[in-house]
Amino acid sequence: MLSADNDVTLAETSRRGHATRLAQSAARDNYDIVAVLGGDGTLNEAANGLAGSATALAPLPGGSTNVFARILGLPDDSVEAAEVILDAVRRGAIRRIGLGAVEGRYFLFHCGVGFDAAVVEQVEKRGPWKRWAGHPLFIYSAVDTWVRRVDRRHPPIRVIDAHGEHVTSGFFTVVMNANPYTFLGNRPFDLVKEATLDQPLAVVTLKKLSLTTLTPVVVAALTGRDVRGHRGVDVRTGVRSLVIEADPPTPYQVDGDHLGASRRLRFTWTADHMSLVMP
């Protein structure tokens, strides 16, 4: 479909990080668009290869998770999504978007630090089940992590603003470049609705992991109500830089890809840093 009216070169990824190198090569060779058939992890790698270049990214959902494609409103079916992308290319619907970064690694929609990254780590350990179990696996991993794998009494995370001031502490911080945070089935999990690809970052910190804190936040996020104002939640918008410190070292994930654990993470936001085909 893509090659019917366009000159297309096919390249297949073979290992972790390969999509970044393929995208960098395409940008150096002045390709107009890199279309990525894969999940959020592959898409993130390609975005890191295209950041700062004139070559545009076009997502085609083909992985076990396709949150960013769904944020853009693309159909879940890759063939239907290709039709939408081709129409956008014909209309010239390509624009520059801002990107968040953590320690130099760009992210398209979010970086999670703490509890949610621990959940992602458990999901990745069950890699063969990820594609087939989908949302049930994430729910199981979330419950298992909450019950057995996190200290719910001592918050490990400290959020520090651009001026070096400690602004809040908690168990779980999401630094968002776009909303929703994820999807549960077909329902968006909205944390900060005004978080868009042309605005600076939104930062949501859960100061408690108790059920009395989690339950109303989850209900609000799934029903489209604002999570601000709920006890134990700190929300900040318009953030261009921040630092998260953790003791002990806390896991973090970027666009659903677990990257390990760290004591200190520096975040930045850069406007108009990548071209994106917009459906």
Order of helices and strands: HEHEHHEEEHHHEEEEEEHEEE
SS content category: alpha+beta
Rg over CA atoms, rounded to whole Å, is 18 Å
Under CATH at level 1, the class of the largest domain stands as Mainly Beta
Number of strands: 14
- What name does CATH use for the topology of the largest domain? Tumour Suppressor Smad4
Low-confidence stretches: none
Strand content: 25-35%
Span from first to last CA?
Answer: 16 Å
The gross shape turns out to be: globular
CATH architecture of the largest domain: Sandwich
Helix content: 25-40%
Q: How many helical stretches?
A: 8
For the biggest sheet, the summary is: 12 strands, mixed
Report a brief summary of the structure.
The protein has 279 residues and is of the alpha+beta class. The protein has helices at residues 18-28, 40-50, 67-71, 78-91, 115-125, 127-133, 135-148, 211-222, and strands spanning 33-38, 56-61, 94-102, 105-107, 110-114, 157-160, 166-170, 172-176, 182-184, 187-189, 201-206, 233-239, 241-254, 257-277.
Primary descriptors:
single chain, 279 residues, alpha+beta, Rossmann fold, Tumour Suppressor Smad4, two-stranded antiparallel sheet, 8 helices, 14 strands
Q: How would you portray this structure in words?
A:
It is built from 8 helices and 14 strands. It has 279 residues and is an alpha+beta fold. It has 2 domains: 18-99, Probable inorganic polyphosphate/atp-NAD kinase, domain 1 (Rossmann fold, 3-Layer(aba) Sandwich), CATH 3.40.50; 105-271, Sandwich (Tumour Suppressor Smad4). A hairpin with a 5-residue loop joins strand 6 and strand 7 (166-170).
